[in-house]
Specification:
Residues 183-310 form the Recombinase domain. 38% of the residues lie in helices and 18% in strands. The protein contains 13 helices and 17 strands. Helix 4 packs antiparallel against helix 5. It is flat.
């Protein structure tokens, strides 16, 4: 018998209680201008007003919101708050369609542009670029977007290079700008020149003087905090990193070194220290000095001396480094100097302890509260920390039975040991 196939069609059902109605698209507009120099018809306010009228006058659209970032660069989307809010609201199902002026208004980074367009497309949300006449939900949309986004990214590269060119030309003339609001000791007059703030200058002089008296960064921070002196930003807590920058800043002796850092990627804006890769410019006697040149140089010499002492350029330090794993990695929490192994002899008996090298060589004037650690107790503390770390990471090979110290294992696992004033240890393990 011959096989016979019959297709049974579906039966159409009509619910008379449901009336057909037109569903309006929830449309959001995104506006952005990156500078105050754009012409009025392309300005931020004009974009916002234009889109409010456009959406209101379309019977098939209903306003879902105006999202706008005024004065934000498009090379990276991380700093554009409203753009990110727009994407979040799309993901939350609050928006059906996005309209914006052009590809360059949306994103000048090809990667970001395609990432967000595809992300919205997966949610069946289109983006209309008015200038280019593109709807991303149409078949030709993504190809055109790829080409146009690439052009926009190249435009951003050119803008970045032109801006950098202008800054370098200013450097060549000895012209530069300082964020004086974060520069202790100086402000700026109406002509853009650095001028001294007397009360702040006294704090700067105090810091330089304390350092030359032999105080550590931590001790200087404590002295400033105990005196109720705040940082230039109004913070009552001082950090050693702040002091390091201040004591190295040539502007305090009236000079200026320009282009200490440079941008290596115009998209990420990442800056790195200039180690001779691009030219630098040194401006002598640019403004009134707070610190005399001879004192500033003395501070630099003292910094180098301390670094040499603490970082092991002496043969004695190298000798200790070879013998004991913790010699170079255990530092004083008060002054930052390394700890040294010392053998004490009392009543015919010897005892091995670890002491701060700064206090050992220079006395408690330079390091007041660093504790002396018994080697046996120290080893047990380190072994216990290694076991806790091994247990947390489920590494059986690194477990020390009965907290028995292992110098070889300490050398392999531990990156830094910081000795607190109460004798406790803060141990940082290698990753």
């Amino acid at each position: 018998m011959k096989k016979k196939l019959t297709i049974i069609p579906t039966q159409e059902r009509h619910d008379q209680s449901i009336q057909a109605k037109t569903v309006c698209l929830r449309v959001a507009a995104y506006c952005r201008v990156s500078t105050v120099y754009e012409r009025q018809e392309n300005s931020y306010d004009a974009q916002v007003a234009c889109y409010m009228d456009k959406i209101a006058n379309n019977p098939d659209w209903v306003l879902a919101g105006i999202y706008s970032d005024n004065g934000r660069s498009a090379t990276n989307t991380k700093k554009r708050d409203d753009f990110n809010a727009l994407i979040d609201d799309c993901a939350a199902g609050k928006i059906d369609l996005v309209i914006t002026k052009s590809v360059s208004r949306f994103a000048r980074n090809t990667v970001d542009s395609l990432l967000f367009i595809r992300k919205l497309k997966e949610m069946n949300i289109g983006v209309i670029f008015e200038k280019e006449g593109i709807n991303t939900l149409e078949s030709t949309g993504e190809l055109l977007i790829t080409v146009l986004s690439g052009q926009a990214q190249e435009e951003s590269r050119n803008i970045s290079e032109n801006t950098r060119w202008g800054i370098v030309r200013q450097f060549e003339k000895g012209v530069f700008h300082v964020n004086y609001k974060k520069f202790m000791g100086y402000t700026m007059d109406e002509n853009g020149q650095l001028i001294i703030v007397p009360e702040e200058a006294e704090i700067v002089r105090m810091i330089f003087q304390l350092y030359m008296e032999g105080r550590s960064y931590i001790q200087i921070c404590q002295a400033l905090e105990n005196s109720g002196i705040k940082t230039v930003t109004g913070n009552s807590k001082w950090r050693d990193s702040t002091l390091i920058k201040m004591l190295s800043n040539e502007k305090y002796m009236g000079d200026a070194l320009l282009q200490k850092t440079y941008t290596i990627n115009f998209l990420t804006k990442k800056r790195v220290v200039n180690k001779g890769i691009v030219p630098q410019y040194y401006v002598k006697n640019n403004h009134e000095a707070i610190i005399p040149a001879d004192l500033f140089q003395s501070v630099q010499d003292e910094k180098l001396r301390r670094i040499n002492m603490s970082c092991g350029e002496s043969a004695l330090k190298q000798k200790y480094s070879a013998l004991y794993a913790i010699s170079n990695i255990m530092i004083c929490g008060e002054c930052g100097y390394p700890y040294r192994r010392v053998t004490r002899a009392r009543r015919g008996k010897s005892k091995v302890v670890w002491r701060c090298k700064n206090r050992l060589m220079n006395g408690n004037r330079f390091c007041t509260n660093s504790p002396t650690l018994d080697e046996g107790t120290l080893h047990k503390m380190i072994a216990a920390a290694i076991n806790r770390n091994a247990k947390a990471k489920a590494i059986k090979d690194y477990f020390l039975p009965a907290n028995q110290y292992d110098d070889r294992l300490s050398r392999v696992l531990i990156e830094r040991i910081k000795v607190k004033q109460d004798g406790k240890l803060r141990i940082t393990f290698k990753k």
